[in-house]
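Predict structure. Chain length: 118.
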Amino acid sequence: MTVNETIIKALTPFGIPITPDFFGGDKKEYFTFNYADDRAEEFGDNAPLNVVAYMQIHYFAPMDKDYLTVKKKVRKALFDAGFTYPDVTDATITEDRIRHLVFECEIENEDELLVQEE
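Prediction complete.
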């Protein structure tokens, strides 16, 4: 399973739209996610043995939404899916009245080690 598929599977139970990179819909509450970094961390026989994806998962919601329960459940869902326990940064845009939480975590990306034949 790819990192993207893992994130989508972990967050689907929330019933909130999830999309990589950019959400172009009209919903007020949604998730996006992006790679912050993606690199090999261990090598053997001149080849990578382990690739780690450093991810940012963004939660957007109206300012008046009670977000603390969602924050706790998202952290748990990502951790249960195999990510490190997420750090959370509040990047809220107060003048736009948009709550924005950034969950930062990492996961081993075994899918990157698989060579796809074209």
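Summary: The first helix runs from residue 3 to 11.
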